[in-house]
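Weekly structure sync, notes
Attendees: PL (lead), two postdocs, one rotation student
Agenda item 3: pending single-chain targets
PL asked that the sequence for the first pending target be pasted directly into the notes so everyone works from the same version. It is reproduced below exactly as submitted, 558 residues in total.
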Amino acid sequence: MAPMPTTLWAASSLFLSFLRLPCGALGAASEPLLGGEYVPTTDVGYITDLTELLDAIEQSTDSSKGLEFYKKVTDLASSTSLEHLSTVRTPHERANPLSSILKYALYRSDNGNGNEIHVSRDGMEFLDKPIDSYGDSIVIAEFNKRSGYNPVLTAETIRATNVWMGTANALYEGVALCKAESNGELVDGTVPGFVSIDDPNYVDPIDKAAAMWIGTHENKTSMEGESLYAWANRMDTIYFHIDDPSFSANDEILGGLKELKSDLATCVDVGTSQDDKVEMAYKMRVFADDVVKYMTVPLVQSLISSMAAILGFTTTDLKDIEDYVILYALVTLSPIEVCDSSSYDDMYATLVTKGKSPDLDDFRNALNLLQSLYICLGVTCNQVGVPLFAKDNPNSSISDCVDPPDKINLVGYTPTSDAMLQSALVDLDVRTIGTLIEMEAFQTAFDVYSMGRFTRDDDNDYGYVSVKDTAIDYTNVDNMIAQDFANQFGKNFVDDTITASIMGTDDYSDMSPRARRVIAEATMVLILLHQYAIDAMLTGIDYCNKGDQDTYWWDDAV
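Predicted structure, written out during the meeting:
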């Protein structure tokens, strides 16, 4: 464990020695992070201090002192604390699609109130508390559990819930700022909802994300300390990346942070054209999505490692190892609900609901099922890697992890182009859009509709194909179904209906988010994708009649 920081031993019971004045009183940019690997341009020292608070909690001897550190404020202007990361709502929090998806899954879980009823977001609960404070609910449950205070697990719980999601939220805050700039949402030179970049209190959102991930960590290869960066390094040492032994989630995250910081600086620059800002906002969304996927890698690794200890594949001196499984199941599995809700329910029941009295056969099945669903989490088999216990122990009964091929076989149809997997993921975009509507993250739902999230296209500069692209891409003159539909209802009917149902405008302004979700998903599946599939088939026929043997359009249609 990391040694207790001297500053914290010297702290009084009321204020930590590093409690900061309002950011504007400091003004200057923070020192470079990670030994100079990341250079902030704004003051984020009050955020890196959160890592010291995690160290203090891990070293604390009783829950009351740990709780005091959890609530300690490191910046008076923003009231920043480890608790604040979960309990205080920010104007741009819903710009993070994963945050709403995770909350929806927990709301629907055995510990939420959405198993049999549908309520508005304000009424959604997890552990009998508002869903928007799910992280704090998990942390407080850990502080108060009947088996007694475990400072090591409590610090890990705070890091995996509040600090991890706080990092992701900051990334998408940066995306939201660039998007607002690209839309020309300026009032007196300031973007509404954001501190002006000329204000001495302005903190670059990407600097915030970097500070939360790296913390006070100085050595790029060190595994010591309570930062997310050190934790990811620790996880990586117990996994082997077969296809790319040099892969490092931390390297990818650090590279993404640097790229996002550069892009945001370009986006808010007054000399950048509006067209370039639009492109930059799209690029930043894709890069933020990718960084969050890399951030997910150590979550998956931590869950597998905890499960392995339960199954006896490894030994551990960690106390309450079942609670580690529960923690990492809670924060890792939620995106699977969008992808395969029944599998999510099964794994939740095995790892969380019955996690304190684990059934070993069910655990083995859950572990193999998890590996088969990596695509839902946005990670690959190589990125997660092979656990060393499985590499060294062929009798561990863990299946080999295999990513779905681009030429994936569906219901007996064997494709010959890479379009198959790329196009087949469109149902995940549809489900994501619907989930975000129900979670009242309407602008983020529209962003996924118009920019994409799962469906990929290698010919696209940044990789996404959106459902909206499909809605306006009927090009085959022989598609009489699409033609007749357009003649009856108007050429833009499908796109207009989906947009209005997402945003709650026109005929859908008085509908509940749940009802609008039903309309949006039905329109995308029953009308949009149906007509597009016919269009693609007819285009495939056209190419075939020309003697072109490329099966891209046939595969796309299927």
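Discussion points:
- DSSP finds 27 helices and four strands in the chain.
- The first strand starts at residue 125 and ends at 126.
Action: rotation student to compare against the earlier draft before next sync.
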